[in-house]
Design a protein that fits this description.
The protein is an all-alpha fold. The chain has one domain. The protein contains four helices and no strands. The chain is flat, with a radius of gyration of 16 Å. The mean pLDDT is about 80.
Length: about 70
């Protein structure tokens, strides 16, 4: 899961991101995976990421003011 995608400009990048998200969700939804303990550092990093504001890749700072 440690992959990051840059450049949300293309439809193929969006499909790839969505495909990776679905794969990750299917993997962690398996019963044997839900019972595994999770590293506290991974949980802290995830919580920090989720606490950040959502980014809008197509909007500029100028368009967000209006």
């Amino acid at each position: 899961m440690g992959q990051q995608l840059q450049g949300w400009r293309s439809a193929s990048a969006q499909r790839l991101w969505l495909s990776m998200l679905i794969d990750a969700m299917e993997e962690i939804s398996r019963p044997e995976r839900r019972d595994e303990p999770c590293d506290a550092q991974v949980l802290a990093a995830l919580r920090a990421q989720l606490a950040r504001p959502a980014c809008t890749p197509y909007a500029s700072a100028y368009s967000l003011r209006n």
